[in-house]
Amino acid sequence: MTIDAHTGVPAGSSALEAETQRVGHSIAGALPPAARHPIQALDGKAMQLASADQELKAALFRFVDVVPACRSMDDLARHLTGFLHEVKHPPAPLSVAMRMADSRAGRAALGAAAAAGVRHMAHRFIVGEDPRAALPVLRDAWKRGVAPSVDLLGEATVTPREADDYASRCAEALTTLTAATAQWPTRPRLEGDSHGVIPRANLSVKISALTPLLRPHAPERGQADAAERLRPLLRQAREAGAHLHIDSESLDTRDAVLDLALRLLAEPEFAAGPSAGIVLQAYLRDSPQMLHRVLNWARDAGKSRAQPLTVRLVKGAYWDHEMVQARQHGWEVPVFDAKADCDANFEDLTRRLIDANGLVRVAVASHNLRSLAHAVAYNRLRGGTDADLELQVLKGLGDGLAEALAGCELRVRAYCPVGDLVAGMAYLVRRLLENTANDSFLHDQAAGVPLDDLLSAPTPSHVLAGRP
Amino acid sequence: MKPFSNEPVLELRRADVRAELASALAESDGRGPVRVPVWIGEDRREGDELISTDPGQPDRVVAVAACASAGEVDEALRRAGEGAGKWARTPAGERARILLAAARGLRARRTRAAALAVRECAKPWPEADADVCEAIDFLEYYARGAIELAQGAPLLQVPGEHNDLRWLPRGIAAVISPWNFPIAIPCGMVAAALATGNSVVLKPAEQAPGCAQLLCEVLREAGVPADVLALLPGEGAVGAALVRDPRVHIIAFTGSAAVGLEIWRTAAETPPGQKHLKRVIAEMGGKNCVLVDADADLDEVVPAMLNSAFGYAGQKCSAAARLLCHESVHDVLVERLAGAITTLQVGQAQNLATDVPPVIEQAAQERVSAYRDKARAEGRLVEGAPVPAAGWFAPPALAAELPAESSILSEEIFGPLLAVERVRDISDACDRVDASPFALTGGLFSRNPDTVEYVAGRLPVGNLYVNREITGAMVGRQPFGGNRLSGTGTKAGGPGYLLQFVEPRTVTENTVRHGLVV
Ligand SMILES: Cc1cc2nc3c(=O)[nH]c(=O)nc-3n(C[C@H](O)[C@H](O)[C@H](O)COP(=O)(O)OP(=O)(O)OC[C@H]3O[C@@H](n4cnc5c(N)ncnc54)[C@H](O)[C@@H]3O)c2cc1C
Question: Which of A155, A212, A329 sits opposite B343 (nearest CB)?
Fold first, then answer.
């Protein structure tokens, strides 16, 4: 058993475990009824079927993916049936759909129904076409105790103009959000911690959208180009008192993104602000070293900054991509391949972050009740206040959970994508995948795994294998 | 033996891996120009008749080579003939062992070999590294393939007879290789010939003798006998002499269609005294087309096209030359591509930030430039960033709105120029591709499974890539080679390739003696 350095709270100690269970049960008790089965609540039948049948899942995803590119209902229906033909044992409702596609009128009806289905799904995850349209939803959530971080969905950036467009959309979003959030009612729990004021306006940005030049084997050009567009946004956020969060993407750009963020934030002009953050991905085997780097930065180059760096701890959204890419190239797989190892690492990093919360602001982002409960429990046992721990969820995946966390008087933020359907499709498909992945908490929860099992501590594979 | 797997390319996204490359290049430069001899048996005759230079910096000499004389061609073939018998009798397992040793040797010299390709052929690091990996793959793959081939094939057996099908080496293979994959392609052709028990005379491209020399060193060090592998640097005349010679059994060639067809014609002759038909394995040019349907994901099309058309300055046989785009997405795609080519950095191959290196030589630069002028006159030309003055640089360019009969749409340009056409639908696009005599690689972007099936059935190409870039075939995964006038339909790095290098023989023995099966 490891004892965490300065706290004396042993990792996996019975006190921590007991507190984790207690917190977990109390959050679970606060979940709205539908949230106990988020997948059923989602798109009832379709998602349930999809998570049970791999072929069907592939067909459904490929369909959702192509919807924005279809030119007519007829075209939509042809794609749909094309995908469904690849499912060996289509369930009864789908056979009906496929028969419909035999006639032109049938295809029109089928296409319309399918498009409506996808749009309906998309609305769960995408809060509006643009920040202005999203404001009512954001404000509503705020009133109910859930702060937002807005993310602008877009097509891939492949030209300088597209990078400029994204940057100006970000600038507009900052303006819109700052003005609108100023009118929101006070919610003390969401607006301050022991470091001071927490900005209301909060925008997440992707470096890969700020430049078409990010090349994994030559990061410098892309960094320099992205910096040209990121600096003005940082200045604007500083002036507006808004928070800017730099998302993490795949490992191809991880170092480039982190280096750039830390370098710019250490520039003297940003010493006074803005509040900013980076993301740490716990599914990466080298994430403990990354945390080490970030904390060293906070002690050193970032020390003179007025606002501490926010570190958002996540598991990571590109697990399949990292696996496939490494296997295709014969590289060592950079992510954990056992889910429990990823979860255990997430908990290790949670404790290290909380231990360092004098240096950084801690945001733990997950839909896994166990992962969240562990963070809350550890922070409390260590003598911290709930105000010093932010919990984050994704809009659409963690709505009920956010409500429960707010109900437990915890500080919670929802990541809210904004954009049109075409631009949001890659995002939507990723979320659907996540929603139906066998190896996920949400899947287990929906499958009816008992709460005590859902809350049990992850057992790392080296422990299972009997090694120390 | 471990089952075949591809040699992993360098993980260049990691800074520590990138850092090693600079020192590899410095070390390679420090060695000075490579001396490439005419290498026959133990004799190495050095000379300076051929000079190979860095295309990005033409005053930098990379290799100084001798040029094989007619007498040396004759001597090389005489020695190869002497070596052939013993090598043919060497068990396949033993030959394979030597090739595997060569794979190890090349692996040990990976960055050195890649550095040479960076300098001699202006191959950017990621591609130079992939070139060396592919060479290693060929050695590993054909070594295993030859062992399998030596098992023969199962035949129907009935009582009283025994049937046996075996494959025997043909004799002498003349390998004529190009400069664009200066290590992988000669290595593949040589390894296939050696693995199956033939002796080899290698005539590498005059632009890349240094890389060929490194390859031959690796093979000889691994134990390939001296009179089984000869290196004959030189120009076209050396290749032509080999092709004509009645002692040659196999001609393995990769290069232009013009030369390939000339080889095909010459090889068909059977001068008096020649007791065999020559087997020609030819990989020739292409005019590779990518089809984009209305339902394509343009976010993926753009990066894939940048790679396929402009990677290594469009000088891969598999590179994309034409983009046939559904009329409903044509304008959007052209606009995005036009913006995207301005992001491509044209520069020296050793700079990791370079997207488009120089083309191989001045003549190539002039050829590509002439096609750009023509595109400007006939339609609309969008050019990328300005290029450095010294060196054989050509800017990446996009030609649109060309007349249907434009030669830019039919001739192989072999440079960073991509022509975009508007098509009514996918069947229109297939008709246009079908009209071309070339059929090497092709691509399709569509998310409709029915369209994928339709195009796979209609395009004559040897390699069709769906929803991805069309370059970068991997040994054992994408057996590579073209159809029609693009090649003899043989697939490098695929299961049938070695059969081109052997002669089949069926042996049937009567096992009945005086009415008894013995
Ligand atoms: C507010 C917010 C912001 C986010 N921002 C980012 C970001 O910027 N960059 C980013 O990459 N991610 C980000 N994510 C994380 C990501 O999008 C997923 O939501 C998250 O990984 C799901 O984890 P979980 O804890 O909710 O669920 P869990 O079900 O506990 O975990 C699922 C996760 O475990 C990992 N996993 C799955 N299978 C295995 C396996 N076999 N072995 C090892 N690990 C496995 C994967 O990461 C998978 O996503 C963010 C998440 C939130 C909530």
Answer: A212
